[in-house]
Amino acid sequence: MRLVVLFFFLLAGISSVFAQLAPPQGINYQAVVYDIGGSSMPGVDAYDLVLANKNISVRFTIIQNNPNGNPVYSEVHTTTTDDYGLFSLVIGQGTPLSTSLFPAIDWGTGYYYLKVEIDKDGGNEFVTLSNQQFWSVPYALFANSAGSGIETIVDNGNATITVTYADGTVQTLGPLAWALVGNAGTNDNLNFIGTKDAQDLVIKTNNQERMRVKKNGQVGINTANPDSSAILELSSNQKGFLPPRMTRIERDNIQNPASGLLIFNATDSLTEYYNGSCWLPTFMTSCTDCLFNLNLPLNSGNIDRVLSDTLAIQVNVDQTTSPDQTISFFAIHNLPTFSSTYFTADTINGDGSTTLIVKTSIFDEPGMYPIAIQAVCGNSVQVKVFYLTIDSCYHVTINSPVSQYNLQQTNNLPGIGQPICVVVDVTSLGAISSTNATAPTFTSGVLDPQSHVGIRNYGSFLARGGNGGLGGNFSAFGNPGQNGGTAINMTTKTSILNYGFIYGGGGGGGSVGLSQSFNIPFLGNWTIAIGAGGGGGCSLGLGGGTGTSIIGIWDNGDDATGGLSAVPGLGGVENVPIPIPLGPVTITVNPNVQGGNGGNYGLPGTIGNLVININATVPIIGTINIPTPAITNFPPAGSAGFAVKKNNNVLVGFPNGTYQLSNLKGTIND
């Protein structure tokens, strides 16, 4: 059980000491004794802990030079506390324990300390209560050996005392203590607050320890045991450490900052330290490290795939360290298969902006997709997330054979005034055809011009072939072949993924024909009509017949077959001599007549050819050759049909051109 003694040196003793020629040999000592039951916090609930009316033993020891120095005097007292735990004693009037007596103490040499020990039970089991230095009052005893009496003693307020003697001598003693109202004239080589006995220095408020300076120089605030590795430890579970807060400008105005100096940068909201060359955030190690802010003005957006397939995302960076360094940009995402991204500028030096372009496809799955936008500068990395929403489209599936398919009409889709996007999936069972080369196999119909159609084809679009040229029109030496049909007719923006077959129709072959009259001896005028029809183009183009004309010598063109392996029809052929007996005269026609062939998918038909040689065997005269005109300008064949007819709309997937690929045959153009 510990004791606490509140003690007082009675200042009233000063006047009695200095007013007499031979001062009494003693120092008044008064104290109140508390028993605090083992608590380390004196004064807590002290009212109930006063040792009242208790016999106690008190031992005084006076030590020279330092608290652990040599004792020069020691004595013991037995006394009884009063109702309030108070006792009063005179040091020097007790039972001496030392061989040297109290009057022999030379107060004029060195410093003296008073050690107080108490046994609360009045025995000899003493507990040390204090060991403190004497200050001004005891030194007045030195007047006993002075040459003259003391007239006045003045406290100068700076921890010094001025003594004026009767003979006019003035002596200033100290500084021997710190004044509570401030000190002047101090000497930092002599004056200090602290200990000289290898003990800790403790500072308390409200009788609670707030700070401790350990004897080895460690400092603990709110802890009596700072960590052995720390020169300073702050301990709290309610409050934090608050370093100096200043703007970037104020920070830069610090003169000659020391390495390790710590501040809070209020401009950038960062805790920073000085490394001897530059200010750095606590998470950086080098002046060449890069620190910057990454910002997205918008963190979400959508692509409707009607009015636009792309989205531009602005990305801003603000570099807060100098000199300017290169910042690189990356986009990390799990966008659908056909979507892609790129930056308008992959790098920026210092501050600036770039734009992330996100391009999607009408064939991508709708939904929300996060895009991580990453900026890298040296070892510094920042990431912002943009949330992209891809809107839904109408969806149509064709999984059976159909003819002359009108997308808008068949599916009752919105028309003019309501732009939409619609995806058409043609499965491997989907076979789209036409019965007439003038009607497209597939048309998007009367959709709003701003709509967007996507065709994902695993089936076939087989356009009708042109018919071969018919007979007749001898003035033009035949008739032209019919143009091949169109596989896909666009009426709005269209994107195509072709994993199947898209074939434009083949052109029909041109027909050839000649009707010519001749004057033959013994017969007079004789007229011949000859020709051949053009072959039909793929698919299913009809061969050319005589039409409404009656032609004596004629061969029809062949029909084209259908399907993916369709064969175009050949033009009619007349190339065998034909004898014609007319009474005494025999006319022989030697023809070389070829109607134009039909074109295969995506190819034009061919132009026919007609050359004839006629001779007549006439009695008496013999054989005569009948001249026939040379023909060089025969009717044209049918043109190749369109694989895709754009009609001045945007097509995504194929450039303009004429194709003869295994899965694409015909022209793509307007």
Please supply descriptive tags for the structure shown above.
51 strands; ten-stranded mixed sheet; 4 helices; disordered N terminus; 670 residues; Immunoglobulin-like; five-stranded antiparallel sheet; mainly beta
Tell me the number of helical segments per DSSP (H or I, 4 or more residues long): 4
In percent, how much strand structure appears in the residues? 35-45%
The helix/strand class is mainly beta
Q: Can you give the helix content as a percent range?
A: under 10%
Q: Which whole number gives the mean pLDDT?
A: 86
Would you report the number of β strands?
Answer: 51
The biggest beta sheet reads: 10 strands, mixed
Radius of gyration: 60 Å
CATH topology-level fold name of the domain at 3-145: Immunoglobulin-like
End-to-end C-alpha gap: 108 Å
Low-confidence stretches: 1-22, 38-48
CATH class of the domain at 3-145: Mainly Beta
Looking at the overall shape, the CATH architecture of the domain at 3-145 is Sandwich
